[in-house]
Amino acid sequence: MLFSPNSSCFGCVFLPLLHLLLLSATAVFCGSIVRYLPGFDGELPFKLETGYVRVDEIEIFYYFIESERNPRIDPIMLWYSGGPGCSALNGLIYEIGPLAFNITAYYGGLPSLEYYPYSWTKTASILFADVPVGTGFSYTTDPSSWTTSDTKTAQQTYIFLKKWLIDHPQFLQVQLFVGADSYSGITAPMVVQHILDANNDGDTPRLNLKGYIVGCPRTDAGINENSKINFLHRMGFISDELYESAKESCGGQYYEADFYTPQCTEDVKLIEKGTHDLDKNNILDPKCTWASPQIDGDTKRRSLEENPGNFLLSPPIIPDFWCHNFNYSLSYIWANDVRVQKALHVREGTIEDWKRCNKSIPYTMDQQSVIGFHHNLSRYGLQVLVYNGDHDLTIPNVGTQEWIELLNITVVNDWRPWLVDGEIAGYTIKYSEHGYRLTYATIKGAGHSPQEYKRRECFEMFHRFISYYPI
After folding, report:
1. Is residue 64 part of a domain?
2. Nearest-angstrom CA–CA distance, 34 and 36
3. Phi and psi for 419 in degrees, rounded to 5?
4. What are the helix and strand counts (H, E) for the chain?
């Protein structure tokens, strides 16, 4: 068995022939333990492993953090971000991990990191993956492998997960969840379906899947786009007169409205003009202007996060004017630092310029709707959590509630507030059908993605869900 002296393999074993056939020519996949990170004072107070898993011709980079409670019995969750093309570091630093940048004490140079106590790793082990290829530190040396799609990403993500678990056999017995947010709401139920299909076909090892989690999830292109008009009207950004005119002229279908009547087209243009300057990720935030010296010519936004160019190299600390993406700039500085990449065991020369969200990936969106996947998954006894920020215009909560209703599953706990520290943190409703349980929750005052705005509340939501407590 060969591995570098600074590697630590939780479960490096020689695999049986069946696994050798599944995992290609390499018999062992080992990650490296990271005990110190540039910008963090002292040794990390949690167990972090980084490494690569080879899938086809792709090297998928991952960060793995063991549960800070009891990793032998706590669940494990695969987590990957949206975009497509947003790095898992985004989830680790800004959303659900135990680290955060110290934005208030930043005066230039390498940003400092702080331990964040309300991390989802308090109650679960989390495997953060840079998928699809071209995301974060994942790469390929085969030019033909850069091109990918929803279908291909889902399949490769499943293979990545299975290979990683085979290499870490102590986590095969604990409960497994698949988690994703934003655009990855398209591929996450597909990954879950791959797991179930393999289990049903008798593939070994059997993955101990218990459920999945999708936050502010892209699910159906038509519902998502149409719901934006309904959301804007509910929030008071569209007058009743204009809304009723658009609803009548477009027949409630505003998606690709250019194909409908001239009045519909005119109404939609008026709506777009009146709401153009809203921050789509959080309608309460200021919409920050371009401030990066490295802006390419294509400003069309394809990511469901902010445009990767929308960040400031020197974020000012001005209490009266705060842009949410000021904080994003620190990730570009930190992750592109040579010392950081060496500490994370990133392979030298594989990534020229790390991006929080890489919009240059040649990606085909070949799944316009995955409601059918969710409907099929409702036949299994899975635990499911779906959530939205209620100030998110990118993936409005009204659209998520619409596709959930299309699943035609029974309400068992009707719409009610849920609380954190005695205060309303959002609203929730629970469905159940033949052992399948779906909990939907809103996070009050949160945008896209909710964890970035209400990190403590989202931790409480996750902790209750993963512990089978009512939210």
Report:
1. yes
2. 6
3. -120, 150
4. 13, 16
Is 200 in the same domain as 247?
no
Helices 240-250, 221-234: crossing angle, 10 deg rounding: 160
What is the per-residue pLDDT across 61-73, written as a single tens digit (0 to 9) for each? 999 999 999 999 9
Q: Residue 181 carries which DSSP code?
A: E
Going from the C-alpha of 39 to that of each of 113, 246, 422, the distances in angstroms are 5, 52, 36
The residue annotated as part of the active site, out of 125, 182, 249, 449, is 182
Same domain? 245 vs 185: no
pLDDT value for 105: 79
pLDDT reading at 338 higher than 80: yes
197/70 same-domain check: yes
Give pLDDT, residue 106.
85
**Annotation says 8 is catalytic:** no
- Confidence (pLDDT) at 351: 94
The residue annotated as part of the active site, out of 168, 233, 448, 449, is: 448
Residues 198 and 245 in one domain: no
User: pTM score, two decimals?
Assistant: 0.88
Query: Worst-scoring range by mean pLDDT, 19-28, 151-160, 313-322, 383-392?
Result: 19-28
**Active-site pick, 303, 324, 392, 449:** 392
Provide the mean pLDDT of the chain.
88
The answer for residues whose C-beta is within 8 angstroms of residue 67's C-beta and 6 or more apart is: 74, 75, 76, 121, 122, 123, 124, 125
Catalytic status, residue 392: yes
- Whether 27 is covered by a domain: the verdict is yes
Is residue 392 in some structural domain? no
Provide the pLDDT for residue 9.
41
* Rounded Cα–Cα distance for residues 165 and 168 (Å): 5
Give the C-alpha separation, 394 to 449, whole Å. Answer: 9
pLDDT of residue 186: 98
The number of folded domains in the chain is: 2
Average pLDDT (108-124) is 96
Cβ–Cβ under 8 Å, residues 138 and 177: no
Q: What is the CATH number of the domain that holds 47?
A: 3.40.50.1820
Is 56 among the catalytic positions?
no
Residue numbers of the domain that contains 199: 17-220
